[in-house]
């Protein structure tokens, strides 16, 4: 019966002459002069011929070898093979040929017959290197998955890889902000799971988890990237809010009543987003997740082109300076920065001043909005045509819809949205929010005075609690 060689030992059978006494001796492998670890394993290619050498065969002139696979002598197996110089030669290698083989050789020393039994682990492989890039079979390309808001959701990617010796698969999930692959981030993912589905293929599965689905997640796309040494494969999907089937509760009522209720439902569904924004704007939840706010106001704008003869603002105080702060030839964004911070004492956040360069723009914007009490957007045609500026406004609306304590105020400098042709690239969420969000209108000729209704209304809309360190100076 073949002996298992699972421990670092060497089995030796002793036959003493014609006596029926068998002595089994166990010795350390390292004590043998003819031991090479690399002889204990062999890789054979399927559908090709292959040779299996008995370890330590070169240490003796005796080439008489008996081969076993498992507990069965190889000579009793019904397949084509031959033995040459102590090697086992397989005419054609098949997948079932993988396994542990044993070879017995007899050596006579000092009238003692020694039987050396060595084991060889044979692995049948289709190839050494992969021939093609992985194939992503799930999810399908351009798939839309249904999700439930305020619930966790798992994204699962299944990719099939070619077998290779140095197998190092890559499967990653990315979230693309606003659908742009140039502005994306890695999702939280589980470890890779590998399953050998056939001799030539290995299935690799990886899941990514969204802890809590929000409306903002519906505006992004999600990409699975699978790669090996040959190349990469990608699949991008979107998320869609799951529609719950609700059976009419007025079954049996007159048809007219049902039509009225259905009509109201259609109207509410059509204007639901606008109503939700109006409700959150005027009745904020006041939920800040226990985080300390760093800024009073996040001021978002696109700097207007400088006008000829524009004046720089003075940092002096008093009635004269307050009047200079509202000169019509000074851009509104410059006036706001001085009045809010230097005169009213609010802690202001300006991206070009207070956000460190070199980071991910989308992450910096979302984090800064979360750490501010109020988002103030100075809207103009240039603003709505700027993708980065529209992203700031979109993030603020999303934060408002996510039960945040954030206040959001718009200042129109080029008229009301009804008088502007919004770019087709603007998001639907932004277009609908512009119609209902609290807003003020700036007119260089009517709003420049310190006592104008614009500055009075703006002061009333500011946060009650200031965290700024500058002592406020009232404009009289």
Automatic annotation (TrEMBL):
GO CC list: membrane
Pfam families xrefs: TIR
PROSITE patterns per the UniProt record, alphabetical: IG_LIKE (PS50835), TIR (PS50104)
Membrane spanning residue stretches: 245-268
Entry's Gene Ontology molecular function annotations: interleukin-18 receptor activity
Location relative to the cell: Membrane
Keyword Glycoprotein: yes
Segments forming domain TIR: 293-462
Domain of life where this protein originates: Eukaryota
Keywords: Disulfide bond, Glycoprotein, Immunoglobulin domain, Membrane, Receptor, Transmembrane, Transmembrane helix
Principal cellular location given in the protein's record: membrane
Membrane topology: Single-pass type I membrane protein
Ig-like domain residues: 37-113, 134-240
Keyword Cytoplasm belongs to the record: no
PANTHER family associated with the record: INTERLEUKIN-1 RECEPTOR FAMILY MEMBER, INTERLEUKIN-18 RECEPTOR ACCESSORY PROTEIN
Family the UniProt entry places it in: Belongs to the interleukin-1 receptor family.
Record protein name field: (Atlantic silverside) hypothetical protein
């Amino acid at each position: 019966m073949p002996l298992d060689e699972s421990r670092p030992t060497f089995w030796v059978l002793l036959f003493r002459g014609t006596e029926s006494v068998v002595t089994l001796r166990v010795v350390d492998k390292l004590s043998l002069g003819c031991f090479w670890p690399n002889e204990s394993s062999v890789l054979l290619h399927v559908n090709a011929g292959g040779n299996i050498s008995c370890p330590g065969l070169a240490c003796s002139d005796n080439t008489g070898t008996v081969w076993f696979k498992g507990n069965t002598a190889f000579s009793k197996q019904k397949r084509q093979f031959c033995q040459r110089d102590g090697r086992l030669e397989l005419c054609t290698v098949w997948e079932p040929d993988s396994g542990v083989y044993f070879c017995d050789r007899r050596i006579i020393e000092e009238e003692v017959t020694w039987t050396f039994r060595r084991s060889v682990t044979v692995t049948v492989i289709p190839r050494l290197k992969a021939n093609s890039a992985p194939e992503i079979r799930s999810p399908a390309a351009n798939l839309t998955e249904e999700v439930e808001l305020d619930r966790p959701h798992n994204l699962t990617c299944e990719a099939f890889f070619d077998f290779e010796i140095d197998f190092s698969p890559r499967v990653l999930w990315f979230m693309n902000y606003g659908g742009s692959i140039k502005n994306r981030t890695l999702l939280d993912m589980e470890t890779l799971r590998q399953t050998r589905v056939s001799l030539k293929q290995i299935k690799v599965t990886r899941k990514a988890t969204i802890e809590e689905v929000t409306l903002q997640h519906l505006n992004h796309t999600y990409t699975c990237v699978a790669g090996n040494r040959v190349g990469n494969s990608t699949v991008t999907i979107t998320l869609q809010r799951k529609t719950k089937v609700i059976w009419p509760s007025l079954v049996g009522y007159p048809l007219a009543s049902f039509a009225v209720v259905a009509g109201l439902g259609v109207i509410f569904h059509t204007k639901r987003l606008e109503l939700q924004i109006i409700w959150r704007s005027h009745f904020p939840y006041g939920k800040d997740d226990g985080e300390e706010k760093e800024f009073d106001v996040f001021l978002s704008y696109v700097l207007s082109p400088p006008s000829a003869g524009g004046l720089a603002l003075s940092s002096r105080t008093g009635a004269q300076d307050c009047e200079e702060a509202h000169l019509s030839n000074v851009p509104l964004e410059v006036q706001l920065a001085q009045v809010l911070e230097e005169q009213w004492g609010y802690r202001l956040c300006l991206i070009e001043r207070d956000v460190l360069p070199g980071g991910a723009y989308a992450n910096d914007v979302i984090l800064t909005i979360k750490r501010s009490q109020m988002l103030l957007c100075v809207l103009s045609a240039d603003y709505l045509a700027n993708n980065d500026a529209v992203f700031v406004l979109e993030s603020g609306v999303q934060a408002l819809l996510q039960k945040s304590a954030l206040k959001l105020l718009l200042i129109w400098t080029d008229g009301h949205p009804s008088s502007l042709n919004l770019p087709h690239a603007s998001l639907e969420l932004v277009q609908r929010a512009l119609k209902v969000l609290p807003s003020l209108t700036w007119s260089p000729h009517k709003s420049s005075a310190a006592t104008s209704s614009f500055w009075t209304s703006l002061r009333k809309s500011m946060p009650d609690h200031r965290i700024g360190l500058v002592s406020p100076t009232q404009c009289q």
